[in-house]
Specification:
It contains eleven helices and ten strands.
Length: 330
């Protein structure tokens, strides 16, 4: 199969790819066309399908596509002046576009997996749990990970649909990184409640085991769209707390506060309201630990993407600026 990251303008592309986004269906001078995004598991690229003027299948194909579909295509790599990026162009009259049947493609064919040893990562989590001295928090963590379904999902789930740690095992990898940052903060600031902070770090994204679904590509589940992972995390914890008698109410509220505010609180101007976001220092620490790992990982992933294109500077839409990749003189 052609690797998207190796393609240049003017080249042909052929093979089977996963659909990550379904954007829109529109009219043009010769009929209808639609735009989707496809991936080979490493790189994503927009695709535009141009329907023929007679008996076009564009609307029918578009209706039958969804994120998670697999498509078998032949097309051309063009530079799209409207979107200012390389795009796959598929013409109904001269190219191939087929939606693969269910079961024709492995569920994880276009989903990457962490390069780290997942069993070693989870062993680190277990070791930290064993070090929790607060009997109530230790009981909660043990109850959660005694559930084999939760444990297996926690080890295998992605941390995102895109951006940071968007691959199988990404949730576990991200969680371990946040735990390590929080542990370091506890060494710098011994006044922090280490047991509370490490517990919050372990559980802050536990809801992502239900927020994301993996079926050909990573997508957001119905539960994720309706509730988000922060609410789901609280629900998972609440269900296990019912098994633990006499769990202190104030301790529960502190844990919930840290988890619910680990993305901060945003104003209408999309600026973080740090003065009113947290009422305990552990919540503040968790926010910055989570944010640091997510942003740095995202940055490093963009650098790797820029290297694929042989660039010294790579424009990142999310950042609104270019980032430096590397130079032969470095």
């Amino acid at each position: 199969m052609t690797k998207i990251g190796d393609l240049k303008e003017g080249q042909k592309i052929a093979g089977r790819f996963g659909v990550t986004k379904k954007d829109w269906l529109k009219e043009y001078s010769r009929g209808k066309f639609f735009r989707i995004e496809i991936t080979d598991g490493d790189t994503k690229i927009p695709l535009k399908f141009w329907g023929s003027p007679l008996n076009s299948r564009a609307a029918e194909l578009y209706d039958n596509l969804r994120p998670g579909s697999a498509v078998d295509i032949e097309g051309n790599i063009v530079y799209d002046n409207y979107d200012n990026c390389l795009t796959v162009s598929v013409n109904e009259d001269g190219n191939k576009f087929r939606i693969c049947a269910p079961g024709e493609v492995e569920k994880t064919e276009f989903v990457k997996k962490t390069e780290k040893n997942q069993m070693q990562l989870f062993a680190y989590v277990q070791k930290e749990i064993e070090g929790i001295k607060n009997e109530h928090l230790a009981a909660l963590l043990n109850a959660i990970f005694a559930d084999e379904h939760i444990k297996s999902q926690f080890i295998e789930s992605p941390a995102a649909k895109e951006k940071h740690h968007a691959y199988l095992g990404g949730l576990l990898e991200h969680t371990c990184n946040v735990m390590k940052i929080c542990s370091t903060l506890c060494e710098i600031y011994p006044e922090l409640d280490r047991d509370l902070l490490i517990t919050a770090a372990i559980l802050h994204d536990i809801g992502k085991i239900q927020e994301y679904s993996v079926d050909v590509v990573i997508d957001i589940s119905n539960a994720g769209k309706f509730l988000t992972h922060t609410y789901i995390s609280i629900e998972i914890i609440e269900n296990k707390l019912r098994q633990i008698p006499d769990f202190p109410e104030n301790l529960k509220l502190k844990l919930y506060h840290a988890i619910l505010r680990h993305h901060g609180r945003w104003s209408s101007q999309e600026t973080i309201e740090t003065k009113t976001s947290w009422v305990i220092p552990e919540a503040c620490a968790l926010y910055y630990a989570d944010d640091a790992d997510a942003r740095i990982k995202n940055f490093l992933q963009h650098i790797e993407e820029g290297k694929k294109h042989g660039e010294n500077w790579h424009f990142i839409k999310d950042f609104g600026s270019e980032i430096y990749i590397e130079d032969e003189d470095d």
